[in-house]
Amino acid sequence: MLLLKNADVYLLPLCALLVVGLRATAAGQLVRVKLEKDAKRVITTTNDQRVCSHDTECVSGFEYCDINLGPEKRRKCGLGNELSGSFCCPVDKVIHPKRERRKTVDDDESDLDKVLDRAAPEPIKPLPEEPECGQNTKSISKIMNVQNAKASDWPWMAVFLETTNYMNFCGGVLLNRRFVLTAAHCFKKYTKQDFVVRLGEYDFTTNNETQYIDYRVTDIRIHPDYDLATHANDIAILKLKRSTIYNSFIRPICLPKTNMEVYEKNAVVAGWGQTVFGGEVSNVLQEVAIPIWLHDQCVSAFSQPIFKTNLCAASYEGGKDSCLGDSGGPLLMQRHDGRWTNVGIVSWGISCGELGIPGVYTKVTSYLKWIAVNAQDVI
Q1: Helix, strand, coil shares of the chain as percentages rounded to 5?
Q2: Catalytic residues, which ones?
Q3: 3-state secondary structure of 71
Q4: Do 290 and 315 meet the contact criterion of CB atoms below 8 Å apart?
Q5: CA–CA distance, 241 with 12 (Å, rounded to integer)
Q6: 357 partner at 20 to 30 Å CA-CA among 10, 24, 211, 378?
Q7: Residue 377 banded pLDDT, cuts 50, 70, 90
Q8: In this predicted model, what pLDDT tens digit does every residue of 128-153 receive, in sequence order?
Q9: H-type helices in 59-150, by residue range?
Q10: Ramachandran quadrant class, 91 (left: phi over 0; alpha: psi -120 to 50; beta: rest)
């Protein structure tokens, strides 16, 4: 989605395309004020963006800086609130985790899933596949560039609207009539009273073209092993206050099979956010196809920890990536039967569309048992 020239690098949670009709500046974060859908969009900014000097590097936690800096000496870095714990560390004091150790020790299953395997009196049943899941008329071969989707192309898309000023702050996908899959880091500062989940949205400037529906949330189920410093296990499930209906614009996504081949395959990221890092966003749902990188390629691209429960995706030549505003949204692959499945959850990254630096996603196949446990208690 992005074409960047000489962009500064920031560590921030990625969002490929979200928020609605607002303009971002290099000095602040996107905020959408509460307006009628056909009204002119307005933004405000906050001066919370920080860039490290040339002799320091932005790190996400004390475990990656071998120096004890007091609060008064710490220079915060990053963009927005989601990585507010990041600070500038002298280059010679940055601890780069042992990549070889990560590749040999990590496996493709979360810690909680291992506990569930040991503790369950019988095998955990997978989440039942909805008959309507993953159905549309799209073919990934037809998505060549960044482009506007059609209104009914991605009916499982969800967007979260903060109810004070109706800011888009994250997205997700509908799993079934009652549950939405998203990222854990979206809820650092939001409680279930602070936002609504909107299903069926397409164009924020057009009234009722899809007859979207807003839902309150009764429960936010964050993975208990989520690590704010590294964004390990960055996954969450929301329970809607009431069951939704299915129609042309609201339909669930399919989940992948455990053994689904994803590496070096093309996938689609879709949303409403920034199309250029620090630049404008789109009122209309957009889509772009990007390749999923080999795990070792992803590890080599970062000094931050990359786990085997992560996926990385972006165009190899740069310019097509997820970006600010798309956190929690899906990375979608098309199955052999033509249905779509959500293989990744937008988690974090450095800037957007930078050559050699992909977006980082939570790998959904690593959490199928956890999803099954937390998304089947529909009443």
Answers
A1: 15, 25, 60
A2: 185, 234, 327
A3: helix
A4: yes
A5: 31
A6: 24
A7: confident
A8: 999 999 999 888 888 878 788 899 99
A9: 99-105, 111-119
A10: alpha
DSSP 362: E
Q: Encode burial over 129-160: b for 16+ CB neighbours within 10 A, e otherwise.
A: ebebbbbbebebeebeebeebebbbbbbbbbb
| Residue closest to 110 by CA, chosen among 368, 292, 297 | 368
> What pLDDT is attached to residue 118?
63
- Closest C-alpha to 198, from 184, 183, 211, 215: 215
What integer pLDDT is reported at residue 282 of this predicted model? 74
Q: Which long-range contacts (CB under 8 A, 24 or more apart) does 221-227 make?
A: 221/374, 222/184, 222/187, 223/110, 223/112, 223/184, 223/367, 223/370, 224/112, 225/110, 225/111, 225/112, 226/184, 226/185
Does position 320 have pLDDT exceeding 70, yes or no? yes
Q: Where are the alpha helices (DSSP H) in the chain?
A: 99-105, 111-119, 295-301, 368-374
Cβ count within 10 A of residue 276: 18
Q: What's 256's DSSP letter?
A: P
SS3 of 296, please?
Answer: helix
Q: Which two tokens stand for residue 183?
A: 């990222």
- For the cut 60, the answer to whether the pLDDT of residue 159 exceeds it is yes
- Asked whether the beta carbons of 242 and 180 are under 8 A apart, the reply is no
Alpha carbon dihedral 138, 243, 125, 119, in 10-degree steps, equals: 130
- Taking Cα atoms as reference points, which of 178, 127, 133 lies closest to residue 340? 133
Whole-number pLDDT of residue 127: 87
- pLDDT > 90 in the chain, percent: 45
Separation between Cα atoms, residue 152 and residue 140, nearest integer Å: 15
Task: Tell me which residue of 309, 320, 305, 304 sits closest to 358, measured CA to CA.
Answer: 320
Give the bridge partners for 268, in sequence order.
Answer: 289, 332
**Which of 215, 214, 219 lies closest to 238 in space, CA to CA?**
219
More confident residue, 48 or 88: 88
Residue for token pair 């800037």: 351
Please name which of 148, 275, 135, 151 lies closest in space to residue 201, comparing C-alpha atoms.
151
